Amino acid sequence: MPLLNTITTPYAEAFLQVAESKKEVEKIIAQAKSILQLWDESSELREAMGSPVLEVESKKAALEKIFSGKVTPSFLNFMKLLAERQRIGFLNSVLERLLELYRAQRNIALATVTSATPLNEDQQAALLKNVQSVAGTNNLELNLKVDPDLIGGFVVRVGSKVIDASLSGQVRRMGLELAKVT
After folding, report:
1. Under CATH, to which class is 2-104 assigned?
2. Which of 1-10, 28-37, 38-47, 149-158 has the lowest mean pLDDT?
């Protein structure tokens, strides 16, 4: 996605610099994660912000109404700037890039854990400890997802490493082995 990075990186870098200058980095990062979740869950928001029919001022007013008091003023201004520059449709990509830059700056590895059922705190703690050894760092961020199609177990992704300890993965591997035999 080099083209997308040429759009998202300058905005993400600039916003990270603003957050650092205002000493709001941790707050901005937490808000970015929340907004990304909202963006993923709300097709109406994505469609409205990405719509070429909706006027820029209407988009800015909608952002103000939705996010005022829920995000820092600098975050709201950032989103309005994206709307003004016809880039609000890329909000998720810009925020993803922001998180990547933040993690890179602080040497934080991202581990995506997909489980068949939600993990309780004890399971998360145990998994975090094991994933830290696989990742080779204690500075780790867990991104938890649930996918009932896994049937049981979990799949962990850290960079290019994948650990598939899911029941569906075991069934798939067993099927491949059986196919080799026949």
Report:
1. mainly alpha
2. 1-10
Q: Which positions ≥6 away from 140 have C-beta within 8 Å?
A: 108, 109, 110, 111, 128, 131, 132, 158
DSSP state of 107: T
Beta bridge partners of 166: 153
CATH no. for 108-181: 3.40.30
Residues of the chain with CATH 1.10.520.20: 2-104
C-beta neighbour count of 32 within 10 angstroms: 25
| pLDDT band, residue 91 (cuts 50/70/90) | very high
Structure tokens at 171: 């069934």
The tokens describing 32, both together, are: 């970015």
* Residue 163, beta-bridge partner list: 156
Amino acid in the structure at residue 55: E
pTM, 2 dp:
0.81
Say if CB 85 and CB 130 are below 8 A apart.
Answer: no
Nearest to 86 by CA among 47, 35, 61, 49: 49
